[in-house]
Amino acid sequence: MKLSKKKLEDLTSIIRRRDEAFKSVGLLELRKTHQLNEAYSVEVEYDTFKKEMTEKYGKDVQVDMQTGEIVGATNDLKKV
């Protein structure tokens, strides 16, 4: 007993589309992993910068992101 030519073509098409879908999901997971690693690296960089600012200006330091003005510093700003 054999599948008809049409059924064999249908099965081949389904398997090919399934394999393509699995491949796409795998690529998405790779991209996701890359983005997560990048986000983690940026977070580590931010934490390091924040620690440096805290050590230099005190724990309540804030920076105006528009002007760069340092506010809330508890340490002497003359060291800048």
The percent range for strand residues is 5-15%
Major sheet size, sense and barrel closure: 2 strands, antiparallel
Q: Terminal Cα separation, in Å?
A: 86 Å
How many H/I helical runs? 1
What fraction, in percent, of the residue positions are helical?
A: 55-70%
Gyration radius from CA atoms, angstroms: 28 Å
Strand order of the largest sheet: 1-2
Could you explain how this protein is built, in words?
The protein has 80 residues and is mainly alpha-helical. The protein has one domain. Helix content is 66%, strand content 5%. It has one helix spanning 5-57; strands at 62-63, 70-71. The chain has a two-stranded antiparallel sheet. The longest helix is centred in the middle third of the chain and has 53 residues, at 5-57. The radius of gyration is 28 Å and the shape is rod-shaped. The termini are far apart. The mean pLDDT is 92.
